[in-house]
């Protein structure tokens, strides 16, 4: 089984969020199951050039000109998994303007190399596994060659054997863009599902991918159900109706080596399920000290994540802060994101001495919050899978989550965490009060902490499900 895993970010090489964690851990876990897997991703300017070698180049027809893309190879740190890096000025940065165009260009580069010069990338591959909208055009571009590729040199095209999978990590981001980006790639209009916007005709890369790909998966069973129920957009459901297909949900895992309180060098001290209670008390004190929070014996809530107004439930958190008297609890927030939300939380932290807000991306502080907090707040409006609740449990921190997506699939109310249903501030406040009451009953609390730590969220389980899916697809094609 040979798999090419295509993604926009990979932890230890370039990380922006949960997708990077998945793109590190899933290929590593699949490799451990014997899958010959390689990763393809852009080579951003800020990435390290250590242990990176140039293995080839590619002439790409783009916007009626020819662009030269250089292909580099490195290995996934800590593993033998090859990573192919695509370097071109268009792919220098992750964010900013023209982000959709950038990843459309990347998708074309990967497809072209895959179709015409598979050896450069260690091919041929049985499966191309695409992650999110960034790489969703690949199935269409591969499909274009199978459908209208007869004018090309067919013998060099391996797309007949290639099966494609698209994993949706978050349907909030669909890669919507003016139709011109597809035309720059040379995709015929007849293949696109164009819709009108006030700014003109547009496409969504994610939906184009879903139309052409062999299988669509997402990152938790509940999120898959929500998508099919139309909770994340009607146009997506229409695609599945046309396909006569359903989306399959496979719950993500976490990297149990990277997230391990027994060995974590970023913590003031390491701990296991037997030493957790004393260790967490010590780490909590050190966290309070470093964040300039008073050393009070009250429950310490933590929040680590993107300040995204549409998803992460921070509007509820702001209302809860206003409603619960200071002094009953403390809250340590860490995150980057939307300017207006950042401003709001800077103000809240100024006003309430019990609130600390660190506005940066800091993996070390994140780990100290996971270990030092008592309760992790995850009140998301929706959450495709979510990793922070699983990380929290691994560190013996009790997650308080809203019942949605992967949060619903991974947290057991009253056993490993607390779950509330309604997306309202009052429901969150009731949840916080329940958690604080449980924290005060030390026997119950310590048993919850230990139960949470014993949960198995390792990637092995999910990787086995992906492997079964790959095997099914390859069998289906023979
Ligand atoms: P999403 O993918 O929606 O951002 P997830 O819960 O799936 O959310 O994953 C978030 C990941 O990013 C976790 O590993 C979390 O620890 C990390 N993270 C998010 N924000 C920060 C930050 N400001 N500093 C350090 N790590 C962060």
Could you explain how this protein is built, in words?
- It is built from 16 helices and 18 strands.
- By secondary structure, the chain is an alpha/beta fold.
- It folds into 2 domains: 267 residues, Glycogen Phosphorylase B (Rossmann fold), CATH 3.40.50; 181 residues, Glycogen Phosphorylase B (Rossmann fold, 3-Layer(aba) Sandwich), CATH 3.40.50.2000.
- A 9-stranded mixed β-sheet has the order 3-4-5-2-1-6-7-11-12, sandwiched between helices. Strands 15-14-13-16-17-18 form a 6-stranded parallel β-sheet, with helices on both faces.
- α13 links the parallel β17 and β18.
- About 3% of the residues have low confidence.
- The site of adenosine-5'-diphosphate (ADP) has 17 residues, from α1 and α11.
CATH superfamily of the largest domain: Glycogen Phosphorylase B
Number of helices: 16
N/C terminus separation? 13 Å
Query: Which spans of ≥5 residues are poorly predicted at pLDDT below 50?
Result: 147-159
Total individual domains: 2
Overall number of strands: 18
CATH topology category name of the largest domain: Rossmann fold
Which ligands appear in the coordinates?
A: adenosine-5'-diphosphate
**Can you tell me the CATH architecture of the largest domain?**
3-Layer(aba) Sandwich
CATH class categorisation of the largest domain: Alpha Beta
The pLDDT mean sits at: 94
Structural class: alpha/beta
Amount of beta strand:
15-25%
Helicity level: 25-40%
Spatial ordering of strands, largest sheet: 3-4-5-2-1-6-7-11-12
Radius of gyration: 23 Å
**Coarse shape:** globular
**Main sheet characteristics:** 9 strands, mixed
């Amino acid at each position: 089984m040979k798999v090419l895993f295509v993604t926009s970010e990979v932890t230890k090489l370039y990380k922006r969020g949960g997708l990077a964690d998945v793109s590190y851990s899933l290929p590593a876990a699949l490799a451990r199951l014997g899958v010959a897997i390689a990763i393809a991703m852009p080579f951003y300017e800020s990435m390290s050039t250590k242990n990176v070698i140039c293995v080839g180049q590619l002439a790409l027809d783009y916007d009626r000109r020819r662009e030269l893309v250089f292909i580099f190879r490195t290995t996934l740190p800590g593993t033998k998994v090859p990573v192919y890096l695509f370097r071109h000025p268009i792919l220098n940065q992750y964010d900013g303007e023209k982000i959709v165009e950038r990843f459309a260009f990347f998708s074309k580069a990967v497809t072209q190399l895959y179709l015409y010069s598979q050896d450069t990338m260690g091919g041929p591959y049985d499966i191309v596994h695409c992650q999110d909208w960034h790489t969703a055009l690949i199935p269409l571009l591969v499909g274009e060659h199978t459908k209208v590729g007869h004018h090309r040199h067919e013998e060099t095209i391996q797309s007949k054997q290639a099966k494609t999978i698209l994993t949706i990590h978050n349907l909030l981001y669909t890669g919507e863009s003016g139709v011109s980006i597809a035309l720059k790639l040379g995709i015929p209009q007849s293949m696109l599902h164009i819709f009108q916007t006030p700014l003109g005709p547009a496409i969504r890369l994610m939906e184009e991918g879903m139309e052409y790909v062999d299988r669509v998966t997402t990152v938790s069973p509940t999120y898959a159900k929500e998508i099919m129920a139309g909770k994340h957009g009607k146009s997506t459901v229409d695609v599945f109706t046309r396909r006569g297909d359903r989306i399959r949900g496979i719950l993500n895992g976490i990297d149990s080596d990277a997230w391990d309180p027994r060995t974590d060098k970023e913590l003031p001290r390491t701990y296991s399920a037997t030493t957790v209670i004393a260790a967490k008390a010590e780490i909590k004190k050190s966290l309070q000290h470093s964040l300039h929070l008073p050393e009070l014996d009250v429950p310490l809530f933590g929040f680590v994540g993107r300040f995204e107004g549409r998803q992460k439930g921070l509007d509820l958190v702001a209302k809860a802060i206003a409603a619960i008297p200071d002094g009953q609890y403390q809250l340590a927030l860490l995150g980057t994101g939307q300017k207006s939300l950042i401003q709001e939380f800077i103000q809240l932290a100024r006003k309430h001495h019990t609130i600390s807000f660190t506005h940066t991306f800091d993996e070390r502080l994140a780990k100290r919050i996971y270990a030092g907090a008592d309760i992790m707040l995850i009140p998301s409006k929706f959450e495709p899978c979510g990793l922070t609740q699983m990380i929290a449990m691994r560190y013996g921190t009790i997650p308080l989550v809203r019942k949605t997506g992967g949060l619903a699939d991974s947290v057991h109310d009253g056993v490993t965490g607390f779950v509330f249903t309604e997306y309202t501030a009052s429901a969150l406040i009731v949840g916080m009060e329940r958690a604080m009451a449980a924290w005060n009953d030390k026997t119950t609390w310590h048993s919850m902490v230990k139960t949470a730590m014993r949960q198995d969220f390792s990637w092995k389980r999910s990787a086995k499900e992906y492997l079964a899916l790959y095997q099914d697809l390859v069998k289906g094609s023979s």
